[in-house]
Amino acid sequence: MPEAMGFFTDTTVCIGCKACEVACKEWNQLPAENGGVRELSGDSYDNTRRLDGIHWRHVRFIEQFKGPYDGRWLMMSDVCKHCVQAGCLEVCPTGAIIRTQFDTVVIQSDVCNGCRACIAACPFGVIDINPVSGTAQKCTLCYDRLQVGLEPACSKACPTDSIQFGAISELRTRAGKRVAQLKSQGVAAELYGADPSGPLGGLNSFYLLVDKPEVYGLPRHPELPTANLAKSGGLSMASAAVLGLLAIVGLRKRRMDEQSRGGPGNV
Amino acid sequence: MSDTFFSGAPHWTWLILLYFFVGGVAGGAAFLAAVLDWVGGAEDRPVARSGYNVAAFGAIVSGALLTIDLGRPLRFWHMLFQSANFPALMFKGWSPISFGAWGILLFGLFSVLAALGGMAEEGRLHNPTLRAVGGAVHGGVAKLVGGVAGLFGIFIAGYTGVLLSVTNRPIWADSPWLGALFVASGVSTGAAALILLAARRGATEQALARLSAFDTKALVVELLVLVVFVVSLGALNKVWVSFWGLILLVGVVALGILAPLWLHLQRRPVARAARLVLLGGFLLRLATIFASEGIEHYRVTAGM
To answer: Could you tell me where in chain A the CATH 3.30.70.20 domains are found?
Structure first.
């Protein structure tokens, strides 16, 4: 079995060119939004705004400005995290979401029926419906390209190597060195999702960040949706038991009354 | 800020809302019908029959709503069988949407059988095949079929809340009490539906009065669970500073729970209270679904 493959995204060298977005759209033949009619966000230079069924890559612009001469842009090319423990795969009721031999997570469009459970299950807001296919879609980590030994379109197109593709073990080593280098320069750099003992068993697409995860639109402690199952199910059963008991006692009462009066129940 | 704010909305809107409501009423009605069959007297049988009718109708409507809501409706069967490996079954015991699909199918099957049994009893079946099937569901078999329908009914009423909790969405995943709340609401609305329908199907005054007395208790349980649910949301309760909070407070608590309770205490006509309970059940699901679905539109206003 091939080694686990994935992305290491070094946000410090992202220049926001969106070449990755374009390459992803091109290779995967994703449709334009709004029939190609341009829609501006109006409050940001980023007009893509989010990941969804037709945007599998999104370069997030974080515009941190306190005044005209005091501020910075943070840029992060966001994508499916290909979680080692994937919530989408866990809840998918059709078996459309699978783990590949590269340890990546792929939605099979010919199996998905568009129930949208995976959208709510993903802690990162990665998945959405592709209005053309009517099915849930997201980054496949270019499964088709990987199968023939090519690297994914986005990382191939990235002009600054902000998106690096490779074997996860090698990427982690490389990321660790980069963090040490940045820290030695006084930059508060941290890795997000690189720890296999961390949330969701680690992410096969992990990031180097220079601010809190929330600033980049990433949850601090992402969880599997089934973390709530036992408690929620248990409380539901308890509620059903209480109501069942009330129903048995309340709806049986008349018969008991009749019995005590020597009525029909006694016959 | 809760980690649930980084997830995406699944676009579960009007069709799912209708399904949650109809499924809840049908499930609650089946549950109460089964209880009446098992512990009630002969005079309760018209109420039980009405319960199975509501359950069967609700189960069929639920299946239709869920199918229409899919992005690819013709692939609804992919939830039950492995599409690439037919007829191997598709079932995930840890995924509420997966075991829920099976739950609806089996609930539909048993509640339709129980309803046919009741219709045969009333002599309302004219089709020979249906009459034969309905005729087979009588006596001990009817009790057994009704009992299974009732168990699946209470499951259907509650699993929808569990389904919402087993996500990463704001409100839904931030409290484990939604399933319990939907169970209570399903039972109270089921009782309300029976009060309204069974009166036309030969139910006695006493049977309706007992059902109404039980609904009072179910409403108290619902109110308590609703309070616990809201408290369990903690700081997230800011989301209720919105239109959906108004619906929850006025529509669900005041109109859907407190007003029927007051009517029950005043011994006013039970039908009026029952209508309000049904309205409250619908609005409860409306508020909980849409407050999370549309949270992106008002979270800044709510200071989140």
So the answer is: 5-222
Q: How far does CA B225 lie from the centroid of its chain?
A: 16
Can you give the residue range of the structural domain that contains B227? 3-298
Residue type, B27: G
What are B185-240's pLDDT values in tens digits? Answer: 999 999 999 999 988 887 888 888 889 999 999 999 999 999 999 999 999 999 89
* ipTM score: 0.95
CATH code of A5-222, in short, is: 3.30.70.20
> Is B79 in contact with A115 (Cβ distance < 8 A)?
yes
Tell me, what's the pLDDT at A265?
36
Closest CA to B20 of B91, B86, B97, B93: B97
- Of the candidates A114, A120, A250, the beta carbon closest to that of B167 is on A120
Average pLDDT, chain B: 94
Rounded to whole angstroms, the Cα distance separating A165 from B132 reads 66
Name the residue facing B162 among A122, A232, A244 (closest C-beta). Answer: A232
Q: Do B79 and A113 touch (CB under 8 A)?
A: yes
Pair of tokens at residue B146: 């009704």
pLDDT in tens, A215-229: 999 999 999 999 999
pLDDT at position A1? 64
Contact A255, A265 (CB under 8 A): yes
CA-based nearest distance B214→chain A, Å: 6
Q: A209: which strand partners?
A: A190
Flag if B168 and A214 touch (Cβ within 8 Å).
Answer: no
Cβ–Cβ gap B6/A125 under 8 Å = yes
CA–CA separation, A87 and A203 (whole Å) = 12
